Amino acid sequence: MRTPFLRPLAVAAVLPAALLTACGGESGDKAETGTGGGGNTIKVGILHSLSGTMAISEVTVKNSEQLAIDEINAKGGVLGKKLEPVVEDGASDWPTFAQKAQKLIKKDRVATVFGGWTSASRKAMLPVFERNKALLWYPVQYEGLESSPYIFYTGATTNQQIVPGLDYLKEKGKKRIYLVGSDYVFPRTANKIIKAYAKANGMQVVGEEYTPLGHTEYSTLVNKIGEQKPDAVFNTLNGDSNVAFFKQFKSAGFDAAKLPVMSVSIAEEEVKGIGVDNIKGQPVAWNYYQTTKGKANEDFVKAFQAKHQGAVTSDPMEAGYNAVHLWAAAAQKAGTTEVAAVKKAAAGLSLELPEGKVTIDGPTQHVYKTARIGVIQPDGLIKEVWASKEPIKPDPYLKSYPWAAGLS
Amino acid sequence: MSPRLRGYALFAAVGLLVLVVAPLTLPAFRLDELAKYLCLAIAALGIGLAWGQGGMLTLGQGVFFGLGGYAMAMYLKLHDAGGDLPDFMTWSGVERLPALWKPFANPAVAVAAVVAVPVAAAVVLGALVFRQRVRGAYFAILTQALAAAFVILLVGRQGLTGGTNGLTNFYDFFGQDPEAESTQRTMYFVTATVLGALYLAARQLVRSRFGRLLVAVRDGEDRVRFLGYNPATVKTVTFAVSAGMAGIAGALFVPVVGIISPSLLGVVPSLELVVAVAVGGRYALAGAVLGAVVMNYAKTSFSEQWAGGWLYLEGALFILVMTLAPKGAVGLYEQARDALARRRPAPAPVPDRPKTEEVPA
Questions:
Q1: Alpha carbon of A9 to those of A45, B38, B138, B277: distances in Å?
Q2: Would the CB atoms of B158 and A188 count as touching at under 8 Å?
Q3: CATH number at residue A213
Q4: How many domains does chain A have?
Q5: Domain residues of chain B, as ranges?
Q6: What confidence tens digit (pLDDT) does each residue in A154-206 have?
Q7: Residue A4 resides in a domain
Q8: How far is B235 from chain A (nearest CA, A)?
Q9: If you ran DSSP here, which 8-state letter would residue B263 be given?
Q10: In terms of CA atoms, which chain B residue is nearest residue A144?
Q11: B17 chain-A contacts, CB cut-off 8 A
């Protein structure tokens, strides 16, 4: 007797092929990339992780980007057309980000995409945007050493966050620094920069430890820190690890007065998760806090909380919100959503946004940002204790810092 | 038409659909996605062989997929760097090219490694594990732990492996820009052809004496041993073949999708492959292929339709298929035929009922 393996195969294979063929009618090759599609609306892509480990952070950015789109639509849209967001889920999975970016560019023909959080997702999307000559707005602080002509970076680069954070520690007389980070590209690159800075500024790095993303056992590490007796810890842990770290840090008898921990990935949203009691009084470095002064921010916080009751606003959310407004203003100025024209119009563009005046630096496609050091308050909000005098010019390759020569 | 002829005719029809109809009707971007599904189908085919035929539930196929993928990606990275260090090494603070990378500058070595490294890893693992008669849940747990450990290793050695980012941003795939539409089209045909060839080869293997032995090992390992065969050898060979397939799948995945990263190789993606095989029907090799294509198509399509909650839909699809058709989608065909046969007034004996479908799990 013969086993007809091939018969099931045929039945099997016809089904998906038929399904796929059924969607064959979609999107001809007529429209040009980056036009946002025809018709009376302009399509824009929103690509964040709505599922998986990063969802908790990225959903908040998606919400603030949608708020910005609603605001723009309420004022008549861009070039007389309403914006139509196409939301995709990057699923905390970097290859999915690349594939969904392709889909937004090629199938939906969006005018631009707002998206990404982790450096890994940005690195995965970068070739897709560069090859298709499409535009990505990336809203999170990152490790620098990158300047793609098809990405606008509305979060801080290192000289707008990490370097001011170090300046602050130096000003406070902290000489012995212990580095703690999650094991991925941002902490490793950040620490490379910190070590170069320390060497040039008479500071000493007394320890450098990495733990896997999602790691939650920190008693050994906290003990090690205790043995070294540093003046301060520089913390680049990400996500849930911070909860475990700060809990064990506190139960080992440390607090902000004894040993300050400067964090660069903990914003208002994360403070809620860590528990204010574990982290109050600790310094953080960002460019925006919910408490930042100014009418633009008051309006932003009010509008956001009207839609999402009890929610806080944080730096990446604000940077995502800014990205939408900056793109819209650039497209309006260019008179088109075509990528090359928008890039040109964006250079030097300046808007009054929640963090203050934000100007796009043409050559790097990063933005000028005011550096702000804040201290976590018992109510979970962050109070600014130090700010740069003016928005700092972005310098992703740290070219203007002699001590950073040889880093890139 | 004899069943055999009919089988070949249907295979040809499927081939026509995949190689002619789909490329003519699908937009370039959808074709590229189909190529991705076909890559995963190659890995699923390997699982179909190891699990469906051989009863080895391997939950760590991502490891072999990754070994193949990284072998290919390492060559592409070195080629793009043209004598310098690959970009990620520069920003990870690596100053000299690690010794592990050096052989991969040679394309022949890299392509050979795509198959050789996963096969070698599977042979070593199989020899250790199957000889100790580790099987069933213990084998499954072991392979799953391996996948978890592999990911931790890749993430932890950022300077060597690119860490969580993985390896991405390739400019030159054997003289072609991997993101160009023409290359993607070519890669689609290459992937489809490789899948077809591997399917035929696997089918041949299953029908051979070795294949019968494999099914016998699945259904009664001790009996096979008492008959004088060594089940460990049979299982090791099959496991190695399935690992080789996963390696090839990984290597094709790199130019098709443009990235290889730990998030593709861990426990969850490895499980997803097994789930796809279960949905398609694990007792038929075609079921594995079908499952991988359908589940990944469903994933894309659900997440496009309903970005906020697509995971629920995918879970529901899995539960639905498993309750209605415990033998997977291909099993449905059998169920429908049996139901029809029962309805006929004079139930004629069914002439060629597949033997493999009778076997209980």
A1: 38, 14, 31, 13
A2: yes
A3: 3.40.50.2300
A4: 1
A5: 26-265
A6: 999 999 999 999 999 999 999 999 999 988 888 988 998 999 999 999 999 99
A7: no
A8: 21
A9: G
A10: B91
A11: 13-14, 17
